[in-house]
Amino acid sequence: MAPQMMESMLEGAASHKAVLAVVTILTYATIRCIYHLYFHPAARYPGPKLAAISNVWYAYQWITGKYPFAIAEAHRKYGDVVRIAPNELVFITPQAGTDMFGSQQKGFEHFTKSDFISLGRADQGITWETDPVKHRQKVKWLLPAFSAKSLKTKEPIIHKYIDIFVEKMKKTVQSDRGIELRQWADWLAMDIAADLGYSREMDQLKEERSSPYLESIWAANFFVTMHTNAKKFPLLGWLQYFSVPPAAIGNYVRAISANNKAFMKRIDDRGMTQHPDHFDQLLAPGAPIPPKNDLESLETICLHLLLAGYEPISSSFHGIIALILQDPPSYQRLVKEIRGTFISYDDITADSLVPLKFLYATVMEQLRIIVVGATGQPRVSPGATVDGHYIPKGVEVQYGNYAFTRDSRWFYDPYNFRPQRWLPRDHADWDAAFENDARDDFHPWSVGIRACPGMTLSWHEIRLIIAKVLWTFDVELLPGQDINYERDFKLWGMLEKPDLWVRFKPVDR
């Protein structure tokens, strides 16, 4: 009888503990929800109720690849300031962007970068660096690489790869099938970025195949988003590793090996490269080999230069061709301007393209329509004012840059491709309908201390690509395609672009 009674008592105690655990969890969750809904510093701002009490709403929008579009819809519904997570707000007004990114304190950024994109490395390179002091030092190292004098000496590298692309396209003339431009744009942009960055010849254009590195970063694109969101769900962090396809692991290993070999080769070749590159600013030709920690930091910076120099250019080339081919009047205006300016292909240079107003307008409108970096650029408030709202220290803020481009308060006819909005008043194609557009508040390369140091280089590259391609070819969109940014693009770690089938036909001269 006694053993049965003891067993019954133990079962009762276990049951009691289970009930107590459930009650404790529910009580904690209830208190937490009440705090976030009514007492948190961000509680007074509107937004989805789910976003106020958990990170589930935020994570879901990212996982679907439609985060920028969800933010735009939230602004339409809730206003200029929206709570998108328990401790995070998103703003849309131009003044908010200026306050977040343009403000400084003693020469350093006032709103520091969050760990949003950090991948957990000991050294965060330049793009991911959250420490303002370290970031400033790295930018100082690199800035001379993007001076006018430096870019002039590196321009032949850009021409080299564009010319390879043009020659490759001439060989596709006999094919009725055309070519898939997304892939070719990736090859072109990454070949340029690698050679400019640290004299690495990837030869993807020549060999007409993706390198292991290019394949690996796209295979890991969704993983980057999962990793970012895992920071908000520490107990579920292990789930992120299931987002990497098993087949991609081998590619990743090969890519890491190839990257390391290319980096060490550049170390060994210091002072003996065939042309100047950005790495010259990081390690002087006569400098000794740095210690291991410094080598790891330099390698991370090189990879950031490769990514930052590749993906925006690829997206711009792909995007401009897709947009102008679906807008024949704009295509004709652009072609007329380019071909009417240059008698010879060899006359096309970075400097000679600066006066072309419709080319400038086309690039700017593509950057507005296809917002590559629509992540919001999250920052941590130091305890400061954003567009008239005091944001307590520690609350994260971000800018809805895609939502801004689609708001009719700042851009007339915001969802349509209208290069005319960027033309000066004295241009023949200027349209008064766009006179009040917020052109001065649109900053595709950001503003302030964190503004992209390679902005001028990016302008050189994309203008040269478009001008040389459209001077040489008539470009046709193959039938059955209708590319739409909101429907066909997805943003995870990088912007996933749809296939774009086109045909290049050499111009008869």
UniProtKB/TrEMBL annotation:
Keyword Heme among record annotations: yes
Keyword tags: Heme, Iron, Metal-binding, Monooxygenase, Oxidoreductase
Query: Which InterPro entries does this one have?
Result: Cyt_P450, Cyt_P450_CS, Cyt_P450_E_grp-I, Cyt_P450_sf, Cytochrome_P450_monoxygenase
Q: Does the keyword Methyltransferase apply?
A: no
Matches recorded under Gene3D superfamilies: Cytochrome P450
Pfam families in alphabetical order: p450 (PF00067)
SUPFAM superfamilies (alphabetical) = Cytochrome P450
Positions contributing to heme binding:
C452
Names of the cofactor(s) = heme
Family listed:
Belongs to the cytochrome P450 family.
- Please give the name of this protein: Cytochrome P450
Q: Which organism is it from?
A: Pestalotiopsis fici (strain W106-1 / CGMCC3.15140)
